[in-house]
Amino acid sequence: MAFMSLLVMVLLVGVQGAAAAFDSDEEKKWVQLHGWLMWGSMGFLLPIGILLVRWTKPMTDVYETPSSARVWTLFYLHIICQVLALALATGGAAVLFVKVGTQFYYTHQRLGLAIMCLIWFQPVIGLLRPAKGSIYRSIWFAIHWVFGTGAMFLGIINIYIGVRIYELISGTSIRTLNIVFSVSVAIMCFLYLLQDRCGHMVSQGRQHKPVPQHSMNL
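== Cytochrome b561 domain-containing protein ==
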C-alpha cells in the first residue's frame, strides 16, 4: 500500500506542467519511439538481467556442486542484458534530445536524467569489481546492488509517468499497454521473491543426515 501511494503521488507530480499537445505527428512518432525504447530497456532488459544474475545463488543452494558453466552462462547473459538495456536507454534519451528537445522542467525529465546517470555508472562499478574474498567486495556489492535495483525501480516508475503524460498530451488511452506492462512487472516481482525461497523449497525435499548422538548431548 505504501508503494502504491508513493507511485500515485509521483505520477501526480510527474505529469504537472506537461505540454498541451504535440507540435506535429512527427514529434508524436519520435515520442512513441522514445517510449518503446525505454520500455525495452527499463521495463524488460534491465529487470531480466537482474533476475538472471540472481539465479546464480539459488543454483548454488540447489546443487551441492553447481556447474561453473551454468553460473558463468547466467553471469554473461546478465551482462548482455544490461549492455543492451544501456544501449536502448541511451538511444531513447538521444531520440528525445535530438528530435524533440528537453530542458528538464518536469519530474519525468529530471527523473530520467537521474536514471541515466545511475545506469551509466553501473558499468564503471562492474569494471572495478574487487576479487572475491577481498575486504572491499561487500562494499562493492552493496553499491552495485543499490544502484542497479534503484535504477530499475525508478525506471519502472518513470515509465508509468511517461505513459500518463502521453495519454494527457495525445488525448488517447493506452490502457491495454498499461495492463500488459503492469502484469509483466508483477511477474518479475514474483520471480524476484521466488528466487529468495527457491533453495529453501528444494531443501525441504532432501533427506538430512541424522545428527550424531554425542552432538546432541553437547
